[in-house]
UniProtKB/TrEMBL annotation:
<dbReference type="InterPro" id="IPR036249">
    <property type="entry name" value="Thioredoxin-like_sf"/>
</dbReference>
<dbReference type="Pfam" id="PF13410">
    <property type="entry name" value="GST_C_2"/>
</dbReference>
<protein>
    <submittedName>
        <fullName>Glutathione S-transferase</fullName>
        <ecNumber>2.5.1.18</ecNumber>
    </submittedName>
</protein>
<dbReference type="InterPro" id="IPR036282">
    <property type="entry name" value="Glutathione-S-Trfase_C_sf"/>
</dbReference>
<keyword id="KW-0808">Transferase</keyword>
<dbReference type="GO" id="GO:0004364">
    <property type="term" value="F:glutathione transferase activity"/>
</dbReference>
<dbReference type="InterPro" id="IPR004045">
    <property type="entry name" value="Glutathione_S-Trfase_N"/>
</dbReference>
<feature type="domain" description="GST N-terminal">
    <location>
        <begin position="10"/>
        <end position="93"/>
    </location>
</feature>
<dbReference type="Pfam" id="PF13409">
    <property type="entry name" value="GST_N_2"/>
</dbReference>
<dbReference type="InterPro" id="IPR050983">
    <property type="entry name" value="GST_Omega/HSP26"/>
</dbReference>
Amino acid sequence: MKRPAFSTGESMKLHWSPRSPFVRKVMVAAHELGLAEKIECVRSVAAMSKPNAAIMLDNPLSKIPALVLGDGTVLVDSAVIVEYLDSLAGGGQLIAPAGRQRWLVLSRQALADGLLDLLVLWRNERDKPAGRQTHEWLDAFAVKAAATLDRLEAEAAALESEPFGIGHIAVGCALSYLDFRFADLAWREGRPRLAAWQATFAARPSARATEIVDG
């Protein structure tokens, strides 16, 4: 079995929030890999306008997730953390180790993560008072989100047939965040296969154990 690059000791500490879709992505992966019990989740508030000194001790960007390993090493960014957890579980569990499938999986993860980045920015803009909103940005966010969802609808057959991995987790977390923060968008309309796939994702034990909540 391939060994991880760092020593984790008995446990790992994760800067965590029940509202963060990127944190959820890490925790879904941890549950799928059988590593959830090795992670201590520490409630951490990461607001864009208010740097959190406690988070910054580990991640100077004041962003979550940030994973602190047993030897004090800090890993930042959900994609990096998931790849580390996958290596800890032996490698190749959620991320194909090589070849065409690896690049497809990583590209799908990047697309879903990009959608999440867009949604966070879109929500921040929508929450501004009416006179301070930039309508060109709101329109651009809507166009890009719809186009991404249409692409995922076209890829729904692949999501259904390919081995479950980080691409599935990232897409599932992004769609769940849409339900959580953008219920008014009714993203399922006109996207029946993607909607059906999301229902199967939401029913997985790892997804049920990590449902996003406003707390």
